[in-house]
Each structure stands twice: as C-alpha cells, then as structure tokens.
Amino acid sequence: MGFALTTILVDAIGVGIIFPIMPDLLLDLHIETVSDAAYYGGLLMMSYALMQFIFSPVIGGVSDRFGRRPVLLLAIGAMVVDYLIMGFAGSYLVLFLGRVMAGIAGATVATASAYIADISPRADRSRNFGLIGATYGVGFIIGPILGGVIGDMGIRFPFFVAAALSVLNLGFGWWFVPESLSQDKRRALDWRRANPFGALMRLRDHPELRNISMALFLLMFAGHVYPSVWSYFGKEVLGWRNATIGLTLALFGAGAVISQAVLLKPILRVLGERRTILAGNSVFMVTMVGLAFVTQSWMVFALLPLAALAEIAGPALGGYSANLVRDDEQGELQGLFASIEAISAIVSPAVMTALFAVFTSGGAWPYFPGAPFLMAALIVLVAVLILRRSMA
C-alpha cells in the first residue's frame, strides 16, 4: 500500500512541481516573452494530457497481462529519465519530448490503483480508493510549493529533486514490494479494450447523462484555467516570484481539500444536491470575474477562499449523477467521467494559454491578461444553464 500510494504521490508532485517554474523555464530556453511562454506552455500541458488519455487504458491492459510490479517499476524508471531530460533540456523540443514521456509514464496511476485493488479486501476497497484521491491532493499541494521555493534557487533544481524522489521510490519498489496479481488472475492483452474512447461510446446507452456530461465537460474545461495560465498571469500582471506562484497554488489546493472534506457535508444537508451544484458553480463564476480584473496581489488572496469554496460543486454533481444510473453501472459512469476529464485536460490548456497569449502579446488591443478567466466564467454560465434545465 505504501509503495502504491508513494508512486501516486510522486506522480502528483511531478505534475505540480512544473507549474510555478514553467514561465522562467521557457524564458530560459530563449522564448522571448511571458506571452509566448504561455502559448508554448499550453502545448506542453496538452501533450502530457494527450499521452495520459491514450496510454492509461493501454498500460492498464499491459499490467493485467504481465503484472503490476514490472509495469510500475518501468514507469518509475522512465520518470527518473524524464526528470533528468527536463532538468538538462537546452531546447524547447527536448522539453516537449520530456513532457510526452512524462505523460506516458504518468499514466501508471491506473496501474497503482489496480495494485491497491489487488491487495485490498473487498470491504476496504472504497476506503483505500479514498486514500488515492487524498494522496493526489497532497501531491498537488506539495508539488507547487516545492517547485516554487526550489525554483527560486535554480530553475532546474526542482526536476533533480523530483528525479531523486523517484529514484528512492524505485529502489523501495525493487527491493521490498512483491507482485500483487497472481498468474491465475492475468488475462490476455485485448487491444479493443484499450480504446480510450470506449467509455464515451457508452453515452448512447444513457440518454439521461448526455446533458449532464456536456455540462461536466464545460465545467472541467473552465476549471483547467488555473493550471493553464495561473503562473503566467502571476508573472505578467503581478510580478510574482516562483515561490509566490507555488504558495497560491498550494493554498488553493488546501482550501479545496477543506471545502470537499469538511464543508461539503453540512452544505449538502442544508441546500441539497441540486442547489449545492448551482451555488458552487455560481461562486466559481464570481471568482473568475474577480480574477479577470485583479491588479494587486491582495485581491488574489482575497478571492482564493471563494475559489476553494467553489470546489463543492464537483463532488455534488458526481453524487447527483451516480443516482441516475444503476448500481452495476457505477464503474462505467466513472470511466465516462474520467474520459471527459482527460479530453478537457487536452483541449483546455491549449485554448486558455492561446487566449492569454493573444491578449498579452506586443501590440495587443485591448491588453487584457484576465481574458482566460472571463472566458471561464462565460463557459460556466452556459454549463449552469444546461444543468438548471437538466435537473429541473
């Protein structure tokens, strides 16, 4: 259990560690302006998410055939190589190839989850899967702080720290962790089951979920504005150091954990699922409009609690949707939502960073760095209108 959760933690740290330092890293690779850096950074995020989308079911199938341990160890080793590539990268092309490799290797979160399922008694699986989400959340708090603080010491240092963590995890897994999938439970690799679009095809069997799924995609699309443009916005508008970018991302992550773990239950008791969903997304819209027009750091810190509170909408929508399908279709539903999340993570960063680049490039009129946040607010408004109609 410790090995699987550590693997997930290191993966999440690796994702989060790059956010605060990305603008300075790209500028170090001779990209001239923060505006241009945002555009190229969006392509990096898109490539990472695309590889995760394509390879998650493939690697999951390979682990069903050959076992969890070799797949996890190979992936962790690949992450070590990837961090070193990015740490020494002297050109954008090398950095891009590193992000592609990271996306492929990072797809092993599904394998780590399967490892946990293998070693967990049926009665403990739900609780242990909850640990996966909590671990990922902790990783996204640690990663930005680590990237921001160490990045101010040296823009390449965070990658070497992440590589060292992966080496330690690899050594632990190699020497102490056994295989979890016995030979009699392995299955032949079926490439048809490795189709990443398979879950989306199941929407035709669930017409009641079509509008919900459309709204969910829009909400996830809008939510990716944070990792997509936050660091570039902080540099361009507020002149933030890497440490400040990392701190604000970590505060948002911690606030989101508190909102979902502590505040959600009493809010649901008072408002119910439908009104919680609408209220959370309304708070999100207000936050986005506020961020679009901030000019000083204190304004951002004042809006962070609202941004965190808005995170109550996601779990409430998940619970509402789960009640629309039968008990034996819950896994299928989660697969559908995972596919929607993956597609939004591919498309949104490219769109949000391109929008930021257009409104901040030399000669841009109007000069409006907050354009991605305002667009996110409008997208959420459309999603709320869909949800109001669907949940009436």
Give average pLDDT, whole number. 85
CATH architecture assignment name of the largest domain = Up-down Bundle
Q: Any idea of the CATH topology of the largest domain?
A: Growth Hormone, Chain: A
- Briefly note the structural class of the backbone: mainly alpha
The number of helical elements comes to 15
- Give the strand content: under 5%
The overall strand count is 0
| The CATH fourth-level homologous superfamily of the largest domain | MFS general substrate transporter like domains
Integer tally of domains: 2
Strand/helix succession: HHHHHHHHHHHHHHH
Kindly provide the name of the CATH class of the largest domain: Mainly Alpha
Describe this structure in words.
80% of the residues lie in helices and 0% in strands. The protein is built from 15 helices and no strands. Helix 1 (2-28) runs parallel beside helix 6 and helix 10 (225-238) crosses helix 11. The longest helix has 51 residues, at 242-292.
